[in-house]
Write a structure and sequence with these properties.
alpha/beta, Rossmann fold, six-stranded mixed β-sheet, 16 helices, 11 strands, 44% helix
Length: 395
Amino acid sequence: MYKRSDYKTIIDRMNEPRKLIQVVMGPRQIGKTTVVKQALQDIDKPYLFFTADNVPATHTSWISDCWQSARVSLKTQNINEIIIIIDEIQKISNWSSAVKKEWDFDTFNDLNIKVILLGSSRVMIEKGLAESMMGRFEEIRMTHWSFAEMKEAFGFNLEQYIYFGGYPGAAHLIDNQDRWEQYINSSIIDATINKDILLDTPISKPALLRQTFELGAAYSANILSLTKMLGSLQDAGNTVTLSGYINLLNDSGLITGLQKFSMDLSRRKASIPKFQVYNNALKNVYSDWKFPEIMSRPEKWGYVFESAVGAHIINYAFKERYNVYYWREGNHEVDFVISKKNSVAAIVVESNSEATNTGLQVFDKKFHPKTSLVIGRNGLPAEDFFKINPVDLLK
């Protein structure tokens, strides 16, 4: 079975002395549980695996019961360490307070119990960590699968990856696009919105949240003002409501609204967003064009290609903690700008025979980026770009 790079990270941290709780984070259906199980099977250490999937949310003592099982194992098996893994931890009410209590007890009593926590809801995991767990954890951030991973594990070619994205559970369905669309809708989109967002966040207009996602995903790689969105949505309320929903969808690993790059922070926040999905499957599930029909329409394929480039960039942004923007001034445009601390890189995507974009030249003179890169025609081949970690462009 294919092993992602996070597999080694988990093994390395479990081989370290007990220091911090390990929290495995990332969007749905990217293999978080699978990679933890792979690591545990190959590491020579005792462990107990628990899942809160079918545990009532109000059963708050369940976490303490898990810990007690580990403490009993330490004593009765005469071992000097054990690993606790709790999956879907966010489904237990006040989970972070319970984990904090047990972790602090073990620390005080010198019990060598190491901990891995997993959850399918990034929103609820981050909320719990911020409430009670400060100073007691570190994150292992997992992303959607890259082109290199989908190619090695499932034999995807570049065009298949650009269109179908990087969900391993859907890889065997791409020859039957109706089944593939059903999987993306039910296992990814519905599950994330209904279980991860609506379950724990008060939403006054759930239907509007879904509409906001669908429109934003369909317009991935496009700049679209919130005011214009209001005219396309039913019972849309106001731009503040839409902005809040976009933030929730971003925290859940579905879509984001990139802001215009500026040295002035207030101008960034006031800019018109450029929508970008985290996985191109989320855009193309709403496409009127099947694969490979859309490849014969360069104007349509161009947006699909640019969206795939953007998805690659923002996925690594979650893992590497850099910022992503776009830039436009008059007729000059840079598709993606990435920045971390004082380093900036500018990226333009060229996918067809349009006139050369002069945005990079203007941007270079104005902001002096560390790297300026053209992807596609007259630039770095797409297949090469999808194999790199964009953070390297900032070095």
